[in-house]
Amino acid sequence: MGRYILRRFLRWIPSTLLLILVVYALAFYGAGDPIKLIFLRAPGDVAWDPERIEAIRHAVGLDRPFLVQFGDYLWHLLHGDMGRSLITNRSVFDAISAAAPVSLQLGVAATLVMAVVGIPLGLLAALYQNSWLDNTIVAFALFIWAVPAYVAGPLLMVLLVLVLKIMDVPYGWDGLFSIKAIVPVLVLALNPLALVIRQARSAVLEVLAEDYIRTARAKGIPEYVVVFRHILRPVLTPVVTQLGLIMITIINGAMLVETVFGLPGLGRLTVRSTIDVDYPFIIAIALIGSFLVMVSNLLVDIIYPVLDPRAGQAQAGSE
Amino acid sequence: MSRHEPFAFEIPAAASVDSQVAYRRSSLWRDAFDRLVANRLAVVGMIIILLLFFTAIVGPYITPYDFLSQDLTARNQPPSAAHWLGTDDLGRDVLSRVIYGARTATIVAFSVTGVSLIIGIALGSVAGYVGGKVDSLIIWLTDFVMSIPSLLLAVVINLSLKTPLTYWMDDMYLATHNPLFRQTIWVDFALVFGALALVQWPSYARLIRGQILTIRNRNYVLAARALGLPRRRILVRYVIPNALGPIVVAVSAGLGQAMVLESAFSFLGVGVRPPIPSWGNMISDGLRVWRHYSHLLAAPAAVLGIVTVAFSFLGDGLNDALNPRQWKE
C-alpha cells in the first residue's frame, strides 16, 4: 500500500511540473510585458518610453532568458512565494490566504448538501426504478445538471426577493452561518448534486442485482436492514470515485457563484484578476485549482482500495 | 436512465415470405429514432433546440427591432406590446437582443464542437491505431487537460492569447490596410473558439480511441475480414455505423456544453464583448440592475436555462436511443 501511494505520488510530479510550465509560458509569452502593463495604468507616460521600461525590466530581472526566469519562479514557489500583484503590489500569497477560507467554507457546505441530499435521492430512485418517483428524480437531476450557476442564482434571487419577498438581497459575505449564505451554497451544490444522484442511482441498481442482496432478502432480513447494511456500503464507492469531477464542477461553479453573489472568495479573485490581466494571480489560482483536482484524484486512488477490496487486489496483482 | 420497455422484437406467427414483406424494415437508425420519439422529455428538448437553430438562422429577419438601435426615450421599459421583453438601459429591444444572442450561442457551439471534434478525431484515431508509446502519451495528455478545471483553463488560454492576437491584428492592419483586421469582433470569437476547443477535445479523443479499440476486434468485424471483404467496405458498412452512436450522443452533449461555456465566458467578461449580444453578457448586465428592472435579468437567464435543459434532456434521450447496450436492466 505504501509503495502504491509513493508510486502514484511520483507519477503525479511531472504533470504538476508540466502544468506550472504551461501556465507560466502562457503568461510569459501571452499576457504582455508586466512592466508595461503596470505603467499603462500608472499616471505619466513611462509606458511609452522604451529606455526606461528596459531599465526597469533589467533591474527586476525580466530580461533574462525564459528558462532562468521559470526556474526562479519555481524556486520561489517552493518557498511559498507566489509573487506580487501587478496592480496593487499586494502579495499573492496574502490575498489568496485571505480569500481561501470563504471558498473553502462554501465548498465544504456545498459538498455536505450534495452528499446529504444526493445519496438518498439516488437510493430512492433506484429502489423504485421506473416508477414515477424514479422518473421525477432522474428528470430533476438532468435539470439541475444543465442549469448554470449564473442562471439558477439570478432566477432564484428574482423569485425569492422580488416575487415571494421572503428574503433580502443575498449579496456579500457574513460568514457561513448567515441567511445570506443559504442561496449561494444551494446554487453551488446544484451541479455536483446531479452527478451524485446519477452515480448513486446506478450504483444501487448494480448492487441490487447482486446475489447477496437476493440471499439477504430470502433469509427474511427486514428491507430497511438490507438497504442500510447491504446496499448502502458499496454504493459509496462509485460516488467517491467521482470526487475529482465533483471538485472540477465546484471550482468552476465557485467562479460563477461568487461573482453572482459578490462573495470575496477565490472565484471572484480569479475573475477580477482575469479582467485586470493581473497574471501572477492567475498563475497562482490556476495552480491551486488544478492542484486541488489532482489531490482529489490521488485521494480517490488511495481510498478506493480501502472501500472496495476487490480493486485493491487487482492493483496488487498488476504490480 | 431508461424509461423504455425493453425492445421487443415482434416475431410473426407464421413467418411466410409474404407476411414478412408487410413488416416495416427496421434499420439501426429507424430503431433509434423510434426509441427517441418514445421519450417525451427528449422530444420536447429536440423541438426547443430545433427552434433555437431556426431562430439563429433567420434571426436578423424576424427581430422586431435592430439589436443595436437605441431609443433613449424608452429606457428600461418593462415588457409591453411594443417591446415584448421590454427595453434595456440604452433603450434597446431585449427580445431582439435575446434572438441575436441565439445566433451568437449557436455559432460558438457549432464552431467549438467542430474544431474540438477534428482535434479529437485526429488524436484519438492516431492513439487507437498506432498504440504503444504514442497511445500512452496521448492518453496522458487527455488526462492532464481533463484534470484542470475547465473554466479556469479556458480563461487562462483566452487571456494569454488575447494580447498577442490583438497586436498581430494591429500589425496586419498597418501593413495591409485591410479593414478586415480592424474588426476586433473576430478576435473575440476566434479566442472563444480556440480556448473552448482546447478544453473540449480530450473527451472526443478518448471516445474515438475507445471506439476504435473495441470495434476493431468485435466478432462481426473479424468475420467480415475473414470473409475477405475489402477494407473500405468493412469501414463503411460495419465500423463507422457502429461507432457513430456514441459520437452523436457526445456531440449533442458537447454542443450544449459549448453553449454553456460560451455564456459563462461572456458572463465573466472575457468572451464575446458588448455590443454583440450574448446571453452571458446580458445576464451580467442585468445583474447590476435587477432589483429595479428584473426583466433585464430574467429574460436572458430564462432563455439560457431553457436551452441548456433542453440539451440535457435531448442528450439523455439520444443516449438511451443510440446506446441500447447501456440499458440498465
Tell me about this structure:
- The complex is a heterodimer of chains A (319) and B (329).
- Chain A contains 14 helices and no strands.
- Chain A is mostly helical.
- The N and C termini of chain A lie close together (11 Å).
- In chain A, 35% of the residues are buried.
- Chain B starts with 16 loop residues before the first helix and ends in a 7-residue tail after the last helix.
- Helices cover 72% and strands 0% of the residues of chain B.
- Mean pLDDT of chain B is 78; it is low at 1-22.
- Chain B is globular.
- The longest helix of chain B is centred in the last third of the chain and has 38 residues, at 231-268.
- In chain B, helix 7 (184-216) runs antiparallel to helix 9 (231-268).
- By secondary structure, chain B is mainly alpha-helical.
- The chains are: A mainly alpha (319), B mainly alpha (329).
Key terms for this structure?
heterodimer; A: 319 residues; mainly alpha; 14 helices; 78% helix; 0% strand; flat; B: 329 residues
Terminal-residue CA separation of chain B: 10 Å
Poorly predicted runs of chain B: 1-22
Count of DSSP strands of chain A: 0
The tally of helices of chain A reads 14
Arithmetic mean of pLDDT of chain A: 80
Number of strands of chain B: 0
Cα separation of the termini of chain A: 11 Å
Largest sheet of chain A: none
Give the secondary structure arrangement, pairings included.
The complex is a heterodimer of chains A (319) and B (329).
Chain A: H1 2-30, H2 34-41, H3 50-60, H4 66-78, H5 92-127, H6 132-146, H7 149-163, H8 182-208, H9 211-218, H10 223-241, H11 243-261, H12 266-275, H13 279-307, H14 309-318
Helix pairs in contact in A: 1-13, 5-6, 5-8, 5-11, 6-8, 7-8, 7-11, 8-10, 8-11, 9-10, 10-13, 11-12, 11-13, 12-13, 13-14
Chain B: H1 17-22, H2 28-38, H3 40-62, H4 94-130, H5 132-146, H6 150-176, H7 184-216, H8 219-226, H9 231-268, H10 279-289, H11 294-322
